[in-house]
Amino acid sequence: FGSAHGFTSKNDSSRIPTCLVRVREELELLGYRDGETLFGAPYDPRHAPPLPGQPSQVYSDYFARVKDLVERASEKNQNKPVILVAHSFGGKVILGFVNWTPMAWRKKFIKHLVLVSPTPPEGFLGVLTSLTSGPSFLVPSVPPLLLRQMWRTFASTLLSLPSPMAFGHRPTVITNHKNYSAYDYKDLLPALGLNTEVVKRVLSMQLRIDPPMVPTTYLNGVGVKTPEQVVYREGNFDVAPEKVYGDGDGTMNFFSVLAFVKELSRQQQANIPFKFVAIANATHSDIVVQEHSLKKVMDVILEANH
């Protein structure tokens, strides 16, 4: 914890440059140094930042460590405020952290928040597909069905399900016998075999999105074929579904992204800067890897540090 290198070594030439590795490398080329001007705050992806009013010991401890890290980073650099950069589920995590801190602390210690393809609180279809048939991306060499039960134990899964705020009444799961929308989890989750306790937890979640109230830039890909409905014709969730596609970054549905942008942009009413940058043909994972999108991410970071 604290190192920008995390689980990847800069000396390991065989590793695949995913997540924020390329961003870190670009920053190091500009003179940033791990432990001096560049820091990392790895999190446990099984857990999810709690909704307001729902405590989480895991994230209470984690947020306290991040707060201490930010303060130490600032102290090491003439008490300057920091720039926070997060990608994917890390975006949800860091937004939860910022909203956990007192407003006076944010104004003192946070110069800019950069969210790169963050997981929108309004949810996205991919997490629901993983819930029904198992995740294909978690351990690529293992069949999704073998990972399904483990995936269903992750709090981060339940907190990223498609919400009515973005998906409305349009069916997300289609079968010959019944269609399910984001309003139908009371029927869908038992049909998937999830226990009563999990169903109650999902149904009790009250979606609330608070702008971070610090200068923020949100970048996301667009123009990539992205699943927005899945079809299990025989209602058999043990087989891979047919998919109906819409716009997005290949993972995040663009209408969910836009719903999130609308909520975050409310901070402009208080004259706090917010900017959304849509990057054509940038996928969810490669937005921080491909040259054309990585350059835009770096431009935002460097502009924030001007």
From TrEMBL:
It comes from the Eukaryota. InterPro entries: AB_hydrolase_fold, LACT/PDAT_acylTrfase. Coiled coil: none annotated. GO terms for molecular function: O-acyltransferase activity. Signal peptide: none annotated. One of its GO terms (biological process) is lipid metabolic process. This is AB hydrolase-1 domain-containing protein. The lineage of its organism: Eukaryota, Viridiplantae, Streptophyta, Embryophyta, Tracheophyta.
